[in-house]
Structure formats: C-alpha cells, structure tokens
Amino acid sequence: DINGQRIRLEGIDAPEKAQVCTRRLFGTWKCGMAATKALWRMVKDKTVTCERRGTDKYGRMLGVCYADGVEINRKMVRDGNAWAFVKYSDIYVAEETEARTGKRGVFATDNQPPWDYRTRHWAYAKEQAPAGCAIKGNVTRNGRIYHMPWSPFYDRVAIDGARGERWFCSEQEALAAGWRPAGGS
Q: Which of 46, 129, 150, 170 has the most CB atoms less than 10 A away?
C-alpha cells in the first residue's frame, strides 16, 4: 500500500506468505516469508514510486514500482523471490530464466508456483466451507477483515455469526460488503 492505494506488482507472482518451498538438497524453507522480507528490505526507508499499468479485478493498481530507482518487480524475479506471472504478462520471463539458471531462491529446485498453491488451498477450503464459500470474514479490533484460504491465519479463524462474522464466496463480494483483506492474504 502506498498512500492508501493497494498496489499489485505487475507481471510477477510471489509465494504466498504461508507458502513453504523445497530446498535443493533436503528440507524446506519458508519461501513466502522470505519473499515478504526481501520486498520489505527493498522498500524500507526508501522512496517508492510506481508507474500505473492498469487496475486488476480487485480494484488494486497494477504497477511497476521502484525503490530509489531500482525496479522492484524485476529484482524480485531476478533474485528468485517471485515468478514471472506469464498468465498476464511476459515482461519478466528473461529474469525468471536467469534466476532458474542460477538456481536462486524458489528456482533452486522445482517448487509449486503461487497460482497452483492458491488453487489447491481454494479447492480444499471450498469443500469444507458452507455452500462452498471459502473466504472467512472475521471481526477484530482492527475492523472487518477477510482471510483467503492460503492466508497464514486462515485455519485459526473460526466464524462466529453472533459477532457479525461471515463467509464470502468471492473477494469482490467481501470488498463490496466493506471488508478489507487481512495482511498476508
């Protein structure tokens, strides 16, 4: 978010905050948290600017962003902290190829791209949710927020209708009802 405007980095898709990736030799690592921290390090105490490239279906600005002149989108992919999101853009394919060749970050081995991770979590949550509406609307001291099935806190949220909490079938529905996404969703 910049000055209250939610921005989606155009052309890339980073691991979800709760996503875990496989290491090259053995074990796993919290690649979603690593990507979040890498982004934070890139922007902390820097002047961030973004070029508008449109608006996504959730009302977020699609942007190519810079931190003190360094392009954030490109660096996230080049460093292995995000995939080129070729479903929507081929801008960063060369950077992904470079990261794969160098076996950097998520490309050190074969890891599940975030779009597949979200699809898998969505399908499972939809089976468990009432009427297949898998988004949890939670009321907290910070307001009315919703959690996507891949959110780090999704499994900890229990819906209590008496408190005004509810289920949503789509993000558009939650946003239209005045709810906001949880951090990390």
A: 150
